Amino acid sequence: MNFVRRLLGVILLAATVGCTGETSRTPRTGAPSPGSSSAGAAPVAIHTGFSAPTGLAFAPDGTLYVSNWSGGTVERVTPDGARSTFAEVSSPAGLALDTEGNLYVASYSGDTVYRISPAGRRQEFATGFHTPAGISFDSRGNLLVCNRASDEIMRVAPDGTVSRVTGGLSTPVGVAEDAQGTIFVANYDGGILSRIGRDGRVSTHSDDFDGLGVGLVIGRDGRLFATDRAAGAIKRVEPDGSAVAVMSGLGSPVALGVNAAGAVYTATWDDGALYQVPA
């Protein structure tokens, strides 16, 4: 039954978002640089050729990691634009980096989070999830994990101990904690962005979305950004919960990441491309 549930989840995600295959297009050389795209201008791709990119993570030196969800790989793009396969993981979704440079990868179909050293050594960090999607670290060094199929947010301590933060969500796929300790959750169903207070209470923070994706990050100056994959837009979420499109005209944006300088990037499923989001 668990296998059937996972399989149905994979089919639903691929059918709804529109999984694309790896293309032969070559990434542009050079480190990602500020683009001119805005909510009213045509987006300009920085790198192309990804296969359903679902997670982004930037190292302090500017190295970018991209999870190729349908390709079963995590790609590494160095600051000079050189691209290579860093690791092979079954249906890699969310990505996160710790302070030691270890990369954490949520295996959507494997119900596992892997830890991969900077040298590429892979080991199981935590298991027993239910189609884990987005992941991110909280301020205490714990890894937050979206249990997509069981409507939960889980917390993994540095020693690998797993505990439950909350449940009763609506297919959570993205998670991020702000400086005040509030946890925000992107729900795949219903276009609802939830918030979990320090007291554990869950409430609706915003419903200004057509359909949220995995990408949910805290950007420069503590501002919250989310992917509205159904609307083809990246939206900035204000403290009152209103969501403002800062970039549009994208084809199923799913992934979001923030580099060391605070710049936000997104990656799209329809064309397998990376874009910089206007500040």
Explain this structure:
The chain is mainly beta. Helices cover 6% and strands 44% of the residues. It contains 1 helix and 23 strands. A 4-stranded antiparallel beta sheet has the order 1-2-3-4, with no helix packed on it. A 4-stranded antiparallel beta sheet has the order 5-6-7-8, with no helix packed on it. It has a 4-stranded antiparallel beta sheet with strand order 9-10-11-12, with no helix packed on it. The longest helix has 16 residues.
Secondary structure elements and their pairing?
Elements: H1 2-17, E1 53-58, E2 64-68, E3 73-77, E4 83-88, E5 92-97, E6 103-107, E7 112-116, E8 122-127, E9 132-137, E10 143-147, E11 152-156, E12 162-166, E13 172-177, E14 183-187, E15 193-196, E16 202-206, E17 212-218, E18 224-228, E19 233-237, E20 243-247, E21 253-258, E22 264-268, E23 274-277
Antiparallel strand pairs: 1-2, 2-3, 3-4, 5-6, 6-7, 7-8, 9-10, 10-11, 11-12, 13-14, 14-15, 15-16, 17-18, 18-19, 19-20, 21-22, 22-23
Helix content bin = under 10%
- Beta-strand portion reads 35-45%
Number of strands: 23
Poorly predicted runs of 5 or more residues = 1-39
Could you tell me the radius of gyration in angstroms? 17 Å
Ends distance: 45 Å
Number of helices: 1
Shape: globular
Mean pLDDT, to the nearest integer, reads 88
Q: Characterize the main sheet.
A: 4 strands, antiparallel
How does the helix and strand content classify structurally?
mainly beta
SSE series: HEEEEEEEEEEEEEEEEEEEEEEE
With strands numbered from the N-terminus, the spatial order across the biggest sheet is 1-2-3-4
